[in-house]
């Protein structure tokens, strides 16, 4: 277990920690079923540039991250390794033996281009109530990826998961008044989650332009950001792409203090 001590305490920093999702480095590699680019090598570059953690999603269809990537990642990552997993029994079995420092349970369907929304914790209560303690027994931190919806937050708190990751994809994809409303939903959900005793992360669809208002939400401890950083890194390299994202998040610091 290599979890940094910061991962076990509410975030004292003036803006959330940045966890970089490296899935799409593997997407590029899998386009040719080749060895490069290596998501592990890239994760280490992201850590060196200031990432507070590394996130990977082992999908059932193995479209990007492969089993061996997770194991190599576990051996190499020195910050915090967060593994996203679905409720699929094969993926769950792999996750339990992965040695990851943190787990985020996500919905998954084969046709989707990317995770399309939060987990229906209310409908999946039975499977989650057995999974959460099994994941926690490994020593990993457990989070459920949920929409900013009070019923989902209440169900998560009842099940005893310590963290939620709020799905920011609807906010990220919206424009104008709808975007403002979606941001307000995230603000309200973060406050409600904290009142329920949950610790709050967020992610999905965040980029250099839309991250600051989310990073300003005071309850948020950690943001998980992947596609925009990997896309930017193709142009400017991993180091600059991660540092630019940290700078974009830091714009929120005065609002959180
Ligand atoms: N959080 C969760 C739970 C996700 O499934 C993903 C996508 O894998 C992300 C965050 C990162 O999303 P993006 O790649 O759009 O930044």
Description:
The protein is of the alpha/beta class and 257 residues long. The chain has a single domain (15-256), classed as Aldolase class I (TIM Barrel, Alpha-Beta Barrel). The protein has twelve helices and eight strands. Strands 1-2-3-4-5-6-7-8 form an eight-stranded parallel β-barrel, surrounded by eight helices. α2 (39-48) packs parallel to α3 (67-76) and α10 crosses α11 (238-250). The longest helix is centred in the C-terminal third of the chain and has 20 residues, at 176-195. The relative contact order is 0.15. Mean pLDDT is 93; it is low at 1-9.
Give the overall pLDDT as a whole number. 93
Count every beta strand, where a strand is a DSSP E run of 2 or more residues: 8
User: Main sheet, how many strands, which sense, barrel?
Assistant: 8 strands, parallel, barrel
**CATH level-4 homologous superfamily:** Aldolase class I
Treating each run of at least 4 consecutive H or I residues as one helix, how many helices? 12
In short:
With 257 residues, this protein is α/β, with parallel strands linked by helices. The protein has helices at residues 23-30, 39-48, 67-76, 89-96, 125-137, 150-159, 169-173, 176-195, 211-215, 227-236, 238-250, 253-256, and strands spanning 17-21, 53-57, 81-85, 102-105, 141-146, 163-167, 199-203, 220-225.
Topology:
Blueprint: E1 17-21, H1 23-30, H2 39-48, E2 53-57, H3 67-76, E3 81-85, H4 89-96, E4 102-105, H5 125-137, E5 141-146, H6 150-159, E6 163-167, H7 169-173, H8 176-195, E7 199-203, H9 211-215, E8 220-225, H10 227-236, H11 238-250, H12 253-256
Helix pairs in contact: 2-3, 10-11
Pyridoxine-5'-phosphate binds next to strand 8 and helix 10.
């Amino acid at each position: 277990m290599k979890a940094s001590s910061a991962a076990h305490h509410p975030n004292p920093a003036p803006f959330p920690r940045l966890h970089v999702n490296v899935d799409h480095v593997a997407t590029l590699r899998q386009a040719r079923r080749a060895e490069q680019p290596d998501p592990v090598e890239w994760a280490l570059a992201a850590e060196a540039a200031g990432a507070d953690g590394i996130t990977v999603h082992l999908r059932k269809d193995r479209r990007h991250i492969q089993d061996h990537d997770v194991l190599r990642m576990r051996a190499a990552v020195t910050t915090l390794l967060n593994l996203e997993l679905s409720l699929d029994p094969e993926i769950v079995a792999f996750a339990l033996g992965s040695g990851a420092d943190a787990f985020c349970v996500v919905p998954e369907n084969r046709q989707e281009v990317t995770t399309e929304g939060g987990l229906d914790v209310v409908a999946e209560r039975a499977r989650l109530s057995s999974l959460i303690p099994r994941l926690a027994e490994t020593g990993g931190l457990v989070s459920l990826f949920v929409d900013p919806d009070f019923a989902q937050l209440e169900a998560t708190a009842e099940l005893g998961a310590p963290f939620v990751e709020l799905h920011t994809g609807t906010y990220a994809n919206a424009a104008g008044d709808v975007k403002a409303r979606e941001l307000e939903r995230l603000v309200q959900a973060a406050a409600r989650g904290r009142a329920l005793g949950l610790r709050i992360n967020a992610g999905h669809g965040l980029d250099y332009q839309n991250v600051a208002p989310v990073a300003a939400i005071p309850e948020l401890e950690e943001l998980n950001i992947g596609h925009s950083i990997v896309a930017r890194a193709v142009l400017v390299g991993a180091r600059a792409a991660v540092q630019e994202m940290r700078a974009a998040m830091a714009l929120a610091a005065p609002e959180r203090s």
